[in-house]
Amino acid sequence: MVVGKVSEFIGSLYYLCVTLLRFKNIMKLKNYLLLLALLLVVGVRAQVPSGNKYPKREFRGAWIQAVNGQFRGIPTERLKQILISQLNSLQEAGINAIIFQVRPEADALYASQYEPWSRFLTGTQGQTPSPMWDPMQFMIEECQKRNMEFHAWINPYRVKTSLKNKLAPEHIYHQHPEWFVTYGDQLYFDPALPESREYICKIVTDIVSRYDVDAIHMDDYFYPYPVNGLDFPDNASFARYGGGFTNKADWRRSNVNVLIKKLHETIRGIKPWVKFGISPFGIYRNQKSDPLGSNTNGLQNYDDLYADVLLWAREGWIDYNIPQVYWEIGHKAADYETLVKWWATHSENRPLFIGQSVPKTVQFADPQNPSINQLPRKMALQRAYQTIGGSCQWYAAAVVENQGRYRDALISEYHKYPALVPVFDFMDDKAPDKVRKMKKVWTEDGYILFWTAPKADTEMDKAVRYVVYRFGNKEKVNLDDPSHIVAITRNPFYKLPYETGKTKYRYVVTALDRLHNESKSVSKKIKL
User: Fold this and answer.
1) What is the structure's pLDDT at 52?
2) Helix/strand/coil (H, E, C) string of 318-381?
3) Cβ count within 10 A of residue 85
4) Largest CA distance in the chain
5) Are 15 and 21 in contact (CB under 8 A)?
6) Bridge partners of 251?
7) Where in this chain does the record put each Glycosyl hydrolase-like domain (predicted)?
């Protein structure tokens, strides 16, 4: 996604204001800056176009989680069919990226030499699937068949969601119990330990090296959600590693910062086209904690989970951000509209997508039109900002189940036409060469349009997908109009439809690289 200079300027202004507002003897300056910030937000709103009803580029993701137990103990072939059915349904709904949970509790929904098989797959941690299969590899292949991105979703620190859960004998905990801490009823890697960071990076290195993933994804679980009246037990680690910090909260944030930066460097060093994305809790900071925070009253990433998401985006340590704005419009403590507007003006020059709760969206009525749910207003709000490049649905099964006719609305209205994933031009802005030798060939299956892949010197230059457009014979070619996209395919051919043989069309083909840069077009007039 190309992020405008307006958001970059506002991000710089934000941190200038934060610094200035810490001084107590400048009340007039404080009031002036707050007024200026308000005017800028209003100004940006006025400058941003009302939104393309059918954008050609939009991130349309969906989370498929394992922790709800939907996979546990299901026979292999049956589970494969369930996943295929879900992907087919999501593809029909216009979803172009799947975020699939592969490491919920320092375990694996893939064949790992370092961590045991997940209990969320087989029912018992460490138990090998029978017959043996690799869910992550299976999902990658199925996503590629449907031209969906595959984002491998890992939880970095969490080991046990309940102390009652048994760890497999081969679990890393049994080899290095000193790396872990118990907090409430849960077990975590100690984020302060260099050994924890090295181990987590080793896991990511293994995934990125062996699997053709499009991204590594982490959600909102960094330091654990606070247990009332119970501090996270890291005094010993603070005494050992907290040199230079007088404030434990700053030190905790630094621990997570170091991991995020190291993960980003690790991924870039292996496959520079693999993205690293985060889906944090929906509130960065409340205004009562920071004058430039959101007008909300809830738990905070920065203060409670020690996740400085804006810093990560500003420093370029993450490649996209999907805040989980799961509340409804009108929520008293965390209003959806307030938060979407806040995040839209704090994208920090990195792609921003909005995490949507399907159940919450269909559960609540539109405040201005109680006869409908909140999906129309949420989609209009999301598409009103240049800095918001799409959304991700929590959760995939809710879309598949068509809760509140949500899927129907995506198909008929909001995802009516295909969308390409936004470009990540800060990672790579060089488009592949155009396709070669395009021709129509008669086969026993009818006419097929064939072309040859463009030449490529590096993996980053290689064409991995193709976009096929169709226009009327005398129609103006406009590749920005997604209604003319008839196929997005990984194959160097497209089966042409059968018509009367008297109508002439113009077919246009472009190539996409791994980061969705689009080549120049090649066209051919064809009579069908």
Assistant:
1) 64
2) CCEECCECCCCCCCCCCCHHHHHHHHHCCCCCCCEEEEEEHHHHHHCEECCEEEEECHHHHHHH
3) 11
4) 83
5) no
6) none
7) 58-357
Of 25 and 332, the one with more pLDDT: 332
Q: Each residue of 371-415: pLDDT tens digit?
A: 999 999 999 999 999 999 999 999 999 999 999 999 999 999 999
DSSP class of 523: E
Determine the average pLDDT of the residues in 284-294: 98
CA atoms within 13 A on the CB side of 514: 18
Asked whether 526 and 486 are in contact (CB, 8 A), the reply is no
Pairwise CA distance, residues 79 & 70, whole Å: 9
The rounded distance, in Å, linking the Cα atoms of 298 and 213 is 34
Quick: pLDDT tens for 84-138: 999 999 999 999 999 999 999 999 999 999 999 999 999 999 999 999 999 999 9
| C-alpha span between 526 and 46 (Å, rounded) | 44
What are the pLDDT digits (tens) for 411-436?
999 999 999 999 999 999 999 999 99
Question: What token pair was written down for 520?
Answer: 């120049």
